Each structure stands twice: as C-alpha cells, then as structure tokens.
Task: structure prediction
Amino acid sequence: MAELTAAGEQGLVEALRRGDEAAFASLVEELTPSMLRVARLYVASRAVAEEVVQEAWVGVLRGIDRFEARSSLKTWIFRILTNTAKTRGAREGRSVPFSSLGGDEPDGPAVDPDRFLGADSRFPGHWAAPPRPWEGGERLVAQETLELIELEIAKLPPMQAVVITMRDVEGFDSDEVCNALDISETNQRVLLHRARSKVRRALEEYMG
Result:
C-alpha cells in the first residue's frame, strides 16, 4: 500500500465512514493480496484464508467509526486481520502457541553453533564459517529462488513466519508489526532474527 500522509489517510478514513464504495473497493484491491498471505499462515487452506480476509473486511466496515488513528490505518486493518485469523486458527486446532512468541523454541539455535569458533580458539565465539555474500543477482531474484523463500517461510514456526512475512515481504516496519500482532519489540526482534537466519541458511545451501 502506498504511503499516505496524515491528511491523506484522514481523508480515506472519512471516505470510508461516509460509505464511499469506490474508496473501499480501492483499499480492498490494494491490501487483499497481502492480507491473504498473512492469513494463510494461521489457517490450514487458502479457502479458509479467503474467508478470514472477508471477515476482516467486514470488521473494518463495522469498526471504522471507532478508528482513533493511534496507529496507521493499514496497521489497524492488519490487527483486525490477525485477530480474526487467530480465532479461526484456534477453532480449527491450528493455534499459535504462546512459546513461539519468545526465543526459547525447541527447534534449536538460529545459527548452527559449528559456524562459530570454540572456546579453545584464539577468538572464541567468532565466525568460523561466516555468511558468504551472494553473487549473481539474476539468480537471486529468479522465480525458483522466490519459490524457495516462500517454501522456507512456510516451514517456520507460525509467529516467525508471520513476522518475516510482514517485515520482509509486505514491508511493515517493526512498530507496525508489534502493533498489528500485539507483541513486544524484543519478541519481534527475536522472531525476525530467527526467521531470517533460517531462510538465509536455506538460501546459502541453495546458492552452493
């Protein structure tokens, strides 16, 4: 969604409150693809994700008169979306565990410990095998690479997948993600770091 000035966003909010169908249709067209990607991380199928998005838009229409601009309109909409998706996911038995909000997850450290020097080395804790710069920009943006990234994100624990999708795919900043997901900056940072590390590791293996 294009960045809006405060005046421009206020004008959009007022148009929605007036029942301006063109303004609402434009907003739906702009945000629905992103909303589907996020909703899909909470529920078991695209069909259910589409229902979640539709329900979220109904929530937007019902709640627009109560929007107080404490966050951006986009962030407010995505908070409605994620709350709706969480409720639907829980109903389907695909709830996001509370443990996934923090850093103590059962899937191990974000980066393989073998990539750091041991205590008996001259520089313990430093990189033994540092991340390599990627070469060949054409290859990095190739369709198969983008598909790999999408597959790797889908393998992540739910909250890691949601955070990296919102930050690195949809372009939210950290404050927007924290507000939309109702998590602390610390949790957001840990989740994003772990998610990026795992996706980068898969890309490094793919790039050879």
